[in-house]
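Inputs:
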Amino acid sequence: MITTLEKLKGGDTAVIRDIKGGYGVRQRLSRLGLHPKDTIEIIRSGYVGGPMLVEIHGSEVGIGLGMAEKIEVEVPDRP
Amino acid sequence: MKIALVGQPNCGKSSLFNSVAGYKTVVSNFPGTTVEYVSSRVYLNRESFELVDLPGIYSLSTPEKEERFTRDYLLRKKPDLVVNIVDSSVLSRSLELTLELLELRLPLVVSLNMIDEAKRKGIEIDVDHLSQDLGVPVIPTIAIRGEGVPELFQKAIAAAKEGRIGKTFCLSMDVERTVSHLSSLLEKKTADTLGVPMRLLAIKVLEQDEEFYAAIEKETPQVIPEMGHLRRDLSECHGRPSDMVISSERHSLAMNLFEHVAKVRRRREKTFRDQVDKYLMHPFLGYIILGLMLISFFGFVFSLGRQIEAPLLGWFEALSAYFASLMDRGSLIFTLLNGLIQALERSPLVEVGGENIPG
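Outputs:
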């Protein structure tokens, strides 16, 4: 299933497909270590507009919901 | 000789600086604490060096002001040696910056900092292997305790004298071809005025670095159309913007390198911190815990105040009585002293209990 990052819940794992943002967003996310094809685990989803906490390559990164909306991810379908 | 400390934010540059310079720059557990550079003269083996602590950077191209500062320093001031401090616990991410720094063609030494933290996270790093792969000395350190620091600087000085600049890494074939085509278009003079090696300049052009782009436009405007053409070709080929192509390339190089030199034993059991975090950082429960903590804190202070209020008041009254026995109650000096004591009695310090003080 293809969706955007902000829709995921804590405990979900997904693979980043694409980053649908401008130059600034792309640069920022790449500096935080988020690239297409990376596997990302959601530790906590954002409540009431707060940032979500994700784990990527062994480090925890906080991502604002606005930024998360621009990250297209693929979630493996549950059997 | 100038030695610059460069690394990603919050990797321990300032800790390392302090442990060598014995000078207290501000260190905290937040990225972005150092916003200006601090330099200090240090003596090692009877030679003096200028050691420079720079703000943390994730990459050489950046819109952030502090990060630009570090980049400008590296390009314009040309340190004789760069010490790349790496947070070992996030090695794969940190190596991306190391790969960029290698492209600067300056003598380089890598300090694998927080090596204890990496071990705790189950990451085991083959230091010799990494050193071979990068072509520069790699020294594990724990800067906050000063471990490995003397060795780091011994190796660093040796590397600077030898002029060891390490390897550069090949990108995918088509990207590499675009980079060399671009390098042939650009003039050496432009790269020299900017203080970057030609290859790095070409890579940065593909990464849409504004400053470099503007400089090229000024020096050799005739190459701009061809440059734009190359960039578009690359992005069409990969189906994404050229800056993303380059950052993905660097990312996969760093990941390969990481997998080559490190073993990760995934430890699934939750640490104490995770357990505490689960409640303290809970979006709803967190606020309740915060409220409870504040209430109990105030409760503690108030109850303590009530306990010490009575003995303190007694002490003040005794003092007042003592003065009364010593001098005439109508005298000016007694009135002043008594006023002073009464003022002290009512001061907030004594009034912690919050109740009216009789008398």
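Remarks. The radius of gyration of chain B is 31 Å. The mean pLDDT of chain B is 84.
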